[in-house]
């Protein structure tokens, strides 16, 4: 795959099989029983010794071991990760919806940090950072060569401390610096409003610890304004996922009691599980059912779910469950395709490992790993088509992604040739989309083709409302189902 595609998103957390799973004695015993590859362990020891004695500069023992563990884990798939003390703390903050930093969602492009979106109301938002800005330096450290996690660490810090970012704004052809004061960022994962009399829009931007509580409150507010609600649009576009129990709860809010929401399957017995629309699968220990305050009418209100290539993981769990149970019409474009479950295992009081432990399956048994949820109705992102979809990275584009575990294939040489041609086509499409995006960025906000989600100029939202009203929907003439991109096995 091209170097642009070897990307791990911001701090977008994959679905978790329970928040923080402790390392039990049974787990330790299971690991102890696994045979060790002695020859390879000896090689590791030899390399460690050579670095200690022969490397040009002294190297700290702890750094060598930590880097070895990190490399071992990151080599498995794009979502497994080793957490040192600082990154483990940051990970917990990310799932809670609170952290100290500048307030931007980021990805990586050509070795630089690219701004996906400034978080509304954050220091970065107030400082004027924009989508597609490239961060070239953090304080006096060049970003080129840093991993995404290392860049995040340098931008995080203590409240009221300052960080200087050097920004290259491609569409304006200029480089400038901005000094930002860090503060606690409280991400708002749920937004809602009455878009028309009788019709509501609810947007979930991420599945966090507070998402279910916020969702219940927003839905209550909607029904207070519109007791006879005629239809609802659940917007999961660009929602990268989050906590599994939150996804199960959101699906359960719309589904009949006790139906299957999602199932998982992996090596461990505890990885073979079925999650149902019942409080025991999503309520926090010792807490009452968080959905008990929802209006009964939510179970039957006509529902359209909006998704796109940025809808991943927990978003796909919700969309897949509502689609399989025919509870909602799924509309938009094919989703990201992250059908794997990550479990966090503490390795001590301050460190841990996020490990892919299972694939997940929709209620009908579909694995969507590296494929995604195919909408019932394909709708372009704008009236002019999918102008910028080529810029979005999917699970199948990520280096070392899992296959979906349901299909195998051969023909390695032919597949490699096809993959190279497809990558060249994707690269050309990305370049064309970038040019269009640069032209769009120069226009006034009111004239841009991709307005803010939920606005009166949101093309896909308008089509969702048409569907709810029984009016004609402008179905895409170009979008087609994207087949699973298979990983070939060595012959």
TrEMBL record:
Region Disordered: list its residue ranges.
399-458
User: Does this entry carry the keyword Protease?
Assistant: yes
Q: Which PROSITE patterns does the record associate with it?
A: PDZ
**Keyword Metal-binding in annotation:** no
Q: Give start and end of each PDZ domain.
A: 88-156
Q: Which GO terms describe its molecular function?
A: endopeptidase activity; serine-type peptidase activity
State the Gene Ontology BP annotations. proteolysis; signal transduction
- Give the record's keywords alphabetically: Hydrolase, Protease, Serine protease
Q: Which CDD domains match?
A: cpPDZ_CPP-like, Peptidase_S41_CPP
Return the GO cellular component terms, semicolon-separated: outer membrane-bounded periplasmic space
Pfam families xref list: CtpB_N-like, PDZ_2, Peptidase_S41
Concerning its family, UniProt says:
Belongs to the peptidase S41A family.
Query: Which PANTHER family is this protein grouped with?
Result: CARBOXY-TERMINAL PROCESSING PROTEASE CTPA, TAIL-SPECIFIC PROTEASE
What name does this protein carry? S41A family C-terminal processing peptidase-3
């Amino acid at each position: 795959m091209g170097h642009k595609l070897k990307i791990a998103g911001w701090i977008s957390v994959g679905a978790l099989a329970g928040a923080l799973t402790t390392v039990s004695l049974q787990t330790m015993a299971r690991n102890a029983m696994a045979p060790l590859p002695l020859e390879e362990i000896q090689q590791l020891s030899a390399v460690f010794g050579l670095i200690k004695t022969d490397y040009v500069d002294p190297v700290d023992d702890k750094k060598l071991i930590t880097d070895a563990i990190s490399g071992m884990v990151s080599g498995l798939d794009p979502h497994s990760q080793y957490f040192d003390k600082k990154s483990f703390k940051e990970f917990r903050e990310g799932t809670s919806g609170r952290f100290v930093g500048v307030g931007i969602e980021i990805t990586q492009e050509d070795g630089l940090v690219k701004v996906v979106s400034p978080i509304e109301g954050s220091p970065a938002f107030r400082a004027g950072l924009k989508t597609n800005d490239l961060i070239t330096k953090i304080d006096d450290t060049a970003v080129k060569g840093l991993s995404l996690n290392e860049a995040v660490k340098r931008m995080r810090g203590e409240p009221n401390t300052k960080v200087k970012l050097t920004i290259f704004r491609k569409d304006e052809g200029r480089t400038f610096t901005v000094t930002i004061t860090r503060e606690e960022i409280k991400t708002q994962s749920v937004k809602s409003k009455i878009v028309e009399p009788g019709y509501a829009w609810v947007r979930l931007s991420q599945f966090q610890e507070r998402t279910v509580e916020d969702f219940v409150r927003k839905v209550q507010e909607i029904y207070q304004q519109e007791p006879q609600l005629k239809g609802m649009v659940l917007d999961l576009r660009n929602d990268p996922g989050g906590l599994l129990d939150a996804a199960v709860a959101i699906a359960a809010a719309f589904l009949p009691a006790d139906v299957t929401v999602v199932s998982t399957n992996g090596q461990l017995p505890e990885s073979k599980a079925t999650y149902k629309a019942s409080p025991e699968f999503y309520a926090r220990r010792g807490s009452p059912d968080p959905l008990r305050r929802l209006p009964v009418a939510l179970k039957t209100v006509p529902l359209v779910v909006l998704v796109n290539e940025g809808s991943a993981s927990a978003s796909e769990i919700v969309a897949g469950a509502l689609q399989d149970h025919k509870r909602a019409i799924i509309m938009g474009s094919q989703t990201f395709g992250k059908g794997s479950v990550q479990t966090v295992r503490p390795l001590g009081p301050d460190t841990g490992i996020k490990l892919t432990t299972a694939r997940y399956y929709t209620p009908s048994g579909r694995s969507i790993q590296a494929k995604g949820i195919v909408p019932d109705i394909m709708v372009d992102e704008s009236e002019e088509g999918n102008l910028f979809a080529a810029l979005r990275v999917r699970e199948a584009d990520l280096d070392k992604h899992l296959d979906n575990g349901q299909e195998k294939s051969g023909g390695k040489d032919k597949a490699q040739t096809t993959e190279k041609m497809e990558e060249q086509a994707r690269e050309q499409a990305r370049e064309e989309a970038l040019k269009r995006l640069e032209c769009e960025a120069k226009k006034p906000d009111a004239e841009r083709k991709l307005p803010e989600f939920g606005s009166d100029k949101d093309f896909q939202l308008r089509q969702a409302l048409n569907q709810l009203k029984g009016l004609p929907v402008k179905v895409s003439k170009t979008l087609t189902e994207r087949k699973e991109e298979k990983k070939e096995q060595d012959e």
